[in-house]
């Protein structure tokens, strides 16, 4: 592959920014592409980073937000309440694109989360109401119950402040860094 074969967005800051949001946008509940799975990092109560896999459920480029769903009783919610700063990283193999997002998370619960709750499949509902609460030590692998509990459903909404995008397309890799305070103009960085 030569430079003429590269996606046009890999060498244009505005196009790369838009392509990155396009990669995030299809991450709806019904989407099955690999980038639907991401790694969310928060700060633990001891100040150490905590990372876990999450499923992207929505993205809104106009508001610069991405959503994941969780059981409100998880440790990550406690961590976010103590310090809302977080990072989310995802990789799209099909377009050779890594996107790293940093920002702050708002926890949306109750009436504001009910529309999303109503859109979940019957199979998914019991994931929000595990007893004992997620992370609690148990005596064996099956020593817990699952029961749908709308009061335990939460949306974690990351408001993006920075976006670090790396395109690993050959023969040249490209990397750009975007910030909200710079109106997302972006700047090239060495990959």
UniProtKB/TrEMBL annotation:
Domain of life: Bacteria
Any one GO BP annotation for this protein: pyridoxine biosynthetic process
Keywords: Flavoprotein, FMN, Oxidoreductase
Keyword Acyltransferase: no
One example GO MF annotation: FMN binding
Cofactor(s) demanded: FMN
Pfam families: Pyridox_oxase_2
Annotated EC: 1.4.3.5
Signal sequence extent: none
Name the record gives this protein: Pyridoxamine 5'-phosphate oxidase
Organism: Celeribacter marinus
């Amino acid at each position: 592959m030569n430079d003429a074969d590269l996606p046009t967005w890999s060498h244009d800051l505005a196009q790369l920014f838009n392509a990155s949001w396009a990669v995030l946008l299809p991450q709806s509940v019904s989407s099955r592409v690999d980038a639907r799975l991401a790694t969310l990092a928060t700060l633990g109560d001891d100040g150490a980073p905590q990372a876990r896999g999450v499923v992207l459920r929505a993205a809104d480029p106009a508001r610069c937000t991405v959503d994941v769903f969780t059981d409100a009783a998880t440790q990550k919610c406690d961590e976010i309440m103590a310090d809302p700063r977080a990072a989310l990283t995802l990789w799209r193999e099909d377009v050779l694109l890594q996107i790293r997002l940093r920002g702050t998370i708002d926890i949306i619960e109750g009436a504001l989360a009910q529309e999303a709750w109503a859109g979940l499949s019957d199979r998914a509902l019991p994931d929000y109401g595990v007893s004992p609460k997620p992370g609690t030590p148990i005596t064996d692998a099956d020593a817990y119950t699952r029961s749908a509990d709308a009061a335990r459903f939460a949306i974690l909404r990351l408001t993006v402040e920075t976006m670090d995008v790396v395109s690993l397309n050959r023969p040249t890799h490209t990397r750009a860094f975007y910030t909200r305070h710079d109106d997302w103009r972006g700047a090239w960085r060495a990959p």
